[in-house]
Amino acid sequence: FIQISTVKDLYDVRLDLTANYILMNDIDLTEATASGGEWDFDGRGWNPIGSNDIYSNEAFSGIFDGNGHSIIGMRIAYTSNNKPSGIENSAYAGLFANVTGEVRNLDMKNVNIEKAYASDKLYVGAIAAYNSGVIKDCSVSGNVKSSDDGYYVGAISGYNKGTISGCYNTATVIAHEYAGGISGYNTKTIENCYNTGAVSETYSEYAGGITGYNSGTSAKVDACYNIGAVSAQSKSNAYAIAFTPSGTTTNAYYLSGTGVGSTGATALTAAQTKVETMYVGFDFDEVWLLNTNAIY
User: Fold this and answer.
1) Is 12 buried (19+), middle (13-18) or exposed (0-12) by CB count in 10 A?
2) Which of 47, 59, 77, 227 would disulfide-bridge 255, Cβ 3.0–4.6 Å?
3) Phi, then psi, of 232 in degrees rounded to 5
4) Helix (H) or strand (E) holding 10
5) Positive or negative, the Cα torsion across 201, 206, 209, 214?
6) What is the pLDDT of residues 109-128, one digit of tens each?
């Protein structure tokens, strides 16, 4: 594993997208990616790994081990007025543009994705805009937002066709179309994850506490819970866990009143959220720990 200790080390991951990396300490991007900062990409903040300077989606196929450390204060902000001249119709905004390998043990703290733009489809996720690999044991806090054309927006990944496991989100998530506390759109696996952040959609599609849209023969959400408020332009499209037209949702739980009931999900009162036996299907030996001192 190549050791990552500085902002430059982190930026240079793009030079070899097949290698393995390990984070040796927290890295603070707050000043580095602020407007005018030393690693501010022409006023747009962080330049995603795999972006090729035009927000494209060259895949990271190695392993990135956060080693329990945090990347703090990553900012991304670009609109139709300051996008790169070579930007494609689809754009990818996140720490990584596209993950086909593995990202693990990473905390993205105080993320500030203010806005992002594409003339066609936009993918936004604090860790990966697009994931068809594995993201596990990661967390996100802060704000993950898109501009008016933001299709797929999630705190962990904008679009997931891989595996997201053991992750949680406390960030606010806002999308134009598909918004999710973990992933905006899911076609594969989200398991053992939870969301406490507010999730909203502003056009006419779907928002979900875990994923806005859970669809496909292999799509599944399992052993997840949500206590974050979910809203959508159409109230009937604000799902507490996920809208699942195909695929499955199992062993999922949500705080009553956070959103529309989801197939395969169970509503809990505030008192019930603090009772371990309510969470049928959760592995309390190897995965989950109930903190009875918590509000939920």
Assistant:
1) middle
2) 227
3) -150, 160
4) helix 7-11
5) negative
6) 999 998 777 767 889 999 99
